[in-house]
Backbone:
């Protein structure tokens, strides 16, 4: 099995995997408001491919907290039902979080099941002063600091990444450049060979 950066030709298979995993009405969820007309973070959006079939996907979107603090929204993530509980979900999450950290992102937020995401360090405690632009079960509103203290004092509503860079976004992009974001990761490079 290979885990690689998602390419345009994977899109249809990813949609099928997501529909099978979440149902066709998944786009009605509040988090999808944050993804509208915004491109995912391509260097963090991974697919697991086995025998030319997409069996796992993870994507991230850039967002702003309170209009000023850049972060990334994890999700959706899905693994083909035939391969679940084999560790692929954890591989996709750990690999992408390491890449996010190396790319200079300082925190991650998501809406998902705490019993699953707590093993990666996600906690509700970090989102207590944040809100979402629609209804959501707040117990599922979680965050992780990639840099300790990066969410300290951060509050406000999650919002879409702006089309024009704000000062906060410019600072974030500069930090990512300093961290060497994207360096050495060719789009078609094989990221990981999982044992057969
Ligand atoms: C969530 C998902 C991506 C995990 O992928 P995976 O490859 O099965 O994950 P792992 O093998 O790393 O971990 C499996 C473990 O997580 C547990 N787990 C999976 N989903 C869980 C959930 N929503 N809540 C709590 N535990 C969960 C499994 O029971 C399993 O436990 P075990 O190790 O004690 O058997 C996969 O189950 C999936 O695609 N689910 C449908 C889509 C979905 O719900 N995605 C978002 C989750 S909020």
Residues:
């Amino acid at each position: 099995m290979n885990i690689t950066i998602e390419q345009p030709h994977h899109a249809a298979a990813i949609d099928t995997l997501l529909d099978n995993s979440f149902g066709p009405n998944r786009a009605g969820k509040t988090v999808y408001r944050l993804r509208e007309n915004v491109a995912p973070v391509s260097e963090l959006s991974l697919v697991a491919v086995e025998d030319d079939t997409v069996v796992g996907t993870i994507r991230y979107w850039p967002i702003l907290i309170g209009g000023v603090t850049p972060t990334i929204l994890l999700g959706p993530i899905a693994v083909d039902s035939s391969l679940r509980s084999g560790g692929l979900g954890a591989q996709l999450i750990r690999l992408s979080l390491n890449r996010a950290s190396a790319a200079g992102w300082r925190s991650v937020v998501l809406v998902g099941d705490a019993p699953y995401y707590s093993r990666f360090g996600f906690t509700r405690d970090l989102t207590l002063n944040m809100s979402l632009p629609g209804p959501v079960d707040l117990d599922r509103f979680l965050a992780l600091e990639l840099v300790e203290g990066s969410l300290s004092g951060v509050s406000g509503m999650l919002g879409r990444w702006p089309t024009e860079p704000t000062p906060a976004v410019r600072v974030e992009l500069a930090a990512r450049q300093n961290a060497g974001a994207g360096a050495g990761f060719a789009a078609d490079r094989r990221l990981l060979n999982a044992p057969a």
